[in-house]
């Protein structure tokens, strides 16, 4: 605003709205040609056909700032009312208006277009930051800053890196998880390309069962002996490839995919509960509020699984150290509370409302511990407290209790 009041002419030149008066050149006839008035273009003239075909060639672009010029090498922006008459048909004019609208949206930090398919809703916020917003038309919940689904406690830059990595590596990860495991004795990666479960390592000729990863015996491969994993064998299923980077990625990718599928099942469970409550109400077997003791925990369970799912990208990119240990502890506590809530919901009846309500409250408290503000504050405070405790312990080691004189 200060620049607008002090030197409006210079501001318009810098904004590419007005040409520099010192470099102005005469214009050509407006009915036959369009001439750039900037000396950078040397006063070149371009026909209406040239301007229209230039726009048509660039119509695949999603920005109008490069289309609003009569000359490609000219920095001056052409007004909308000057460009529209140059376009040959209504289709190009509609595209141009659409691109202008997108450019305006991209340049306005407080506005965001709903990412829902063909949704025209605009979201306006007082402060442009990473926050959860919801479209009132499509009920689409997304992050205002980066527009994917809301992803607390992972920040926007991290979730984009994770989504791109999953898109690039998902096929590789799926193949590795489905067809390879580490040898139980020498940890060499082994690919299964035949139907037999009797495997022999090519490096250490160790014979083992592909199903349970135990030493091969006559009973291996049967449901009775291979129905459960041997102690420590889960590691080979969860992390099937040597190499620390790939092991870490597969570890978190598998959990990411598992909770994606679990969320779909939770949505189905919630729908079944909702339908069952409606049926009981319609047959005068109870009131609507009588079923809320199951419906509210089911809604919270899906919410907590969603939060837990988005802790895995954050944990994957987090640097090793006390912060990572504390975050993993919070993550493990949330996982345990979610499983407890899920189990109590399956076993709940009308007599277990108090126990189920307590578990619901406890699970929600664990979920809130991973939200951006709480998580950042808790991590900072706990990290500082841990450093102070370690420093105090080194400087003043605890004194052992005196020996008993008796």
Structure in words:
This protein is mainly alpha-helical and 406 residues long. It has 4 domains: 2-107, no CATH class; 116-143, no CATH class; 157-238, no CATH class; 244-394, Four Helix Bundle (Hemerythrin (Met), subunit A). It is 51% helix and 7% strand. The strands form 5 sheets. Strands 1-2 form a two-stranded antiparallel sheet. Strands 3-4 form a two-stranded antiparallel sheet. Helix 9 runs antiparallel to helix 10 (292-309) and helix 12 (322-347) crosses helix 14 (372-395). Mean pLDDT is 69; it is low at 28-35, 37-50, 221-225, 227-242 and 373-380.
Give a short synopsis of this structure.
The chain is mainly alpha-helical and about 400 residues long. It has helices at about 1-5, 10-15, 50-55, 80-85, 90-105, 155-180, 225, 235-240, 245-280, 290-310, 310-315, 320-345, 355-370, 370-395; strands spanning about 35, 45, 110-115, 120-125, 130-135, 140-145, 180, 190, 200, 205-210.
CATH class of the largest domain: Mainly Alpha
Principal-axis shape equals extended
Give the strand order, joined by hyphens, for the main sheet: 1-2
Q: From the 3D coordinates, which CATH architecture of the largest domain would you assign?
A: Up-down Bundle
Q: State the helical fraction.
A: 40-55%
In this structure, how is the largest beta sheet organized? Answer: 2 strands, antiparallel
C-alpha-based Rg, rounded: 32 Å
As for the CATH topology of the largest domain, it is Four Helix Bundle (Hemerythrin (Met), subunit A)
Summarize the helix and strand pattern as letters: HHEEHHHEEEEHEEEEHHHHHHHH
Give the distance, in angstroms, between the N- and C-terminal Cα atoms: 86 Å
Number of strands: 10
Output the structural class. mainly alpha
Average of pLDDT? 69
Any idea how many domains?
4
The total of helices stands at: 14
Show unreliable segments. 28-35, 37-50, 221-225, 227-242, 373-380
The percentage of residues in β strands lies in 5-15%
Question: Please, what is the oligomeric state?
Answer: single chain
